Amino acid sequence: MSVISNGNERDTKFAVIGTGWRAEFFTRLAQAISGVECVGSIVRTPRESLLPIYLSLDECNLKARPDFLIASVPREITPSIIRMAVAAGIPIMAETPPAADLHLLRELWNDVGQSGLVQIAEQYLRLPSHAGRLNVVKSGAIGTPTHVQISSTHDYHAISLMRGYLGAGIGPVRVNATAFNAPLQNPASRNGWNLDSEPVKVQSRIATIEFNSTLSGLYDFTDNQWHNQLRFRRVIVRGSHGEINDDQVIRWVHPDSFVTAPIVRRQTGYDLDLDGYRTDHLSFNSEILYKNPFCKESWSDEEIAIATMIQEMSDWVGKRRPAPYPLADGIHDHRVALAIQESLDKSCAITTEKEAWDS
């Protein structure tokens, strides 16, 4: 993952469609991104806000003239918002997933797939830990990547990570999934701590995904695994000459030798470090893998990743970089996630068919 330059010649303006928890990330983080300005939110009904409020895209376009839009609305509404933006000729980055089911994904692609205006806000490969591992893979340290195991996040996010680490493109896949229920204490959620310590039954899903004859992934997700710290996050990337296990790398270096080394995060703010609590960089074998492009901000990894997506979208609209995450990729990720559910429902392996968005 390359470090992003924040030195733009002029501000790139965007508006957020939607309110709520996720939308707040985009409006808040933009204030700290050089060269990017959030001009307000487009909502259905008036509300109090520190930023301007617009009741329609037409009003926003007339008064603020945004260079692009970010849609943070329920998946059932997202397709209509995307179509509205494309009809107005405005680039848009939509939250995941771009539509709820396979039928709606196909309709959406048929309507706007060739517009070249739609990106997806798939941020996981921009999280510092994933960006660092990805650069280890790209360096060739573990040879050719062949298999990825993700037990961390769910559905399309996990599929995006697998494809990113493997360099897997878009096309038919074979999915075989199973699920089981077991008791687990559930101490925290998005709403905060749960003081009831009694275990409850939660579902775990495990699926194998075959992207082609040599590239595969293992998906393992337990309900509420994002917030439940009683479950480790696990990322394994296997290659022809070594393997990454979370932040440890083992690799072949000589016909009769292999070595292990950690991916090391430099985090300021510990002990007598008074520079503030923030991520500075990740390194491997004394080489910088990843440099936080927003190292002046005391942000979580998720905030860094979302801000990176905003910056990449701004740079793409300004023709300073390639597309951050095209619609076809976002649709494909969700198509594979839907195949996991289909495999569970039918208790058999599912092979997806070639789709119009396949490369």
Mean pLDDT, all residues? 94
Q: CATH topology of the largest domain, anyone?
A: Dihydrodipicolinate Reductase, domain 2
Taken from the alpha-carbon principal axes, the silhouette is globular
How many E strands? 19
Q: Main beta sheet: strand number and arrangement?
A: 11 strands, mixed
Relative strand content: 25-35%
Q: Any idea what the CATH architecture of the largest domain is?
A: 2-Layer Sandwich
Number of domains: 2
For this structure, what is the CATH class of the largest domain? Alpha Beta
Radius of gyration, whole Å:
21 Å
Measured between the Cα atoms of the first and last residue, the distance is 22 Å
Structural class: alpha/beta
Secondary-structure element string: EHEEHEHEHEHEHEEEEEEEEEEEHHE
